[in-house]
Amino acid sequence: MPYKFEQLDVWKLSLEYIDTIYLLAEKLPKSEEYTLKSQIVRAATSISLNIAEGSTGQSDAEQARFLGFAIRSLIETVACHHIIQRRGYIQDQTLLAKIYEDSQVLARKLQSFRKLSPPSVEKTNPLRRRRFAVQHLHRQWSIVHRQMNKIEIENLSPSNTPMARNLCAASAWESVRMQ
After folding, report:
1. Tell me, what's the pLDDT at 76?
2. How far is the CA of 88 from the CAs of 42, 82, 91, 136, 174, in angstroms?
3. Span 120-176, pLDDT tens digits
4. Which residue among 77, 85, 90, 153 is least enclosed by CB atoms within 10 Å?
């Protein structure tokens, strides 16, 4: 049975990106063997390793965290790409353009995939949980407010309707937040 990451398109795309980075690294001068060459290869490899490691995590939050690491590693390869181009180490502009274009495609895929696995609020610190709760209540309040449109809010009691109860709860949270 294949591992989950082996079926991910974003992981397959990262392997293709690694292949292209290796082609670039082979063309770097010997003086960059243990600096820029090593750095760009390790960063590119880290992209696919983090996708794989995150796919077998215990939660969506873990997966999102590892996808964040993969995005950071991708950005690192782009920074190395700029240094290589700036220093004039590679004359093959077609290869440089392809790598840059591939990095943009991979970045979009990683960002999209990361958005599919939002971080879990339960495992975060209390301040973040409280902030999330307040934001959630603000969203609820705006929905209820739009639904109630022209009704006088002051005339509602909490027992009148479910919408009124939600609105009163949102108002209570708002007063707690302001303290």
Report:
1. 97
2. 21, 10, 7, 51, 57
3. 544 556 666 677 667 767 666 666 656 554 454 445 455 555 655 555 555 554 554
4. 153
